[in-house]
Amino acid sequence: SQTIHQWPATLVQPVGSPLSLECTVEGTSNPNLYWYRQAAGRGLQLLFYSVGIGQISSEVPQNLSASRPQDRQFILSSKKLLLSDSGFYLCAWNGGETQYFGPGTRLLVL
Amino acid sequence: EDQVTQSPEALRLQEGESSSLNCSYTVSGLRGLFWYRQDPGKGPEFLFTLYSAGEEKEKERLKATLTKKESFLHITAPKPEDSATYLCAVQAGSSGSARQLTFGSGTQLTVLP
Prior knowledge:
The complex is a heterodimer of chains A (110) and B (113). With 110 residues, chain A is mainly β. Chain A has no helices and 11 strands. In chain A, a hairpin with a 2-residue loop joins strand 9 (87-95) and strand 10 (98-101). In chain B, 0% of the residues lie in helices and 58% in strands.
């Protein structure tokens, strides 16, 4: 069966520091991968998606970037975090028509 | 631009008190409408996919229905463990192989014992 992992689970970072969040999927090949951000009490905002290795599409302009160095690995990065980057970051993969989500990373920027 | 609006934002029910959550949408060619359940601090859990008007799907105390403009999630005789945020999302036909979803802001359901 397929499994999706995200780490770290929780992260507290100072403003201006770099960021690297990792997502890996097991049990499938060539999945579509997605990064979402969820602000408190809000819906999910799609940040990036990837249909293959090295292929990244950005939905929202910001100081974040994404990379897909391997088929089942998706990384979310920033060179300098802003206070507004705080939130709950979710990775998802596509199984047929349905997206399945990972456990999420809670990021607090102070 | 695809849009999804969920109502109410929050709903408090007594155990056993049935109700419905609403998801109104505008999309250029609906490919699918999705319902998820999200518990605090966790990722959304997939519940249902609906593809065409008139379609219905059931799972335990939950029943999802779809019209050309909206979807309802009916909760029959809810229990406290049904307390969660319920998210609705649409996938447009124009999304192609990328299959992006547009989410609503969710309905936070609390079922009191």
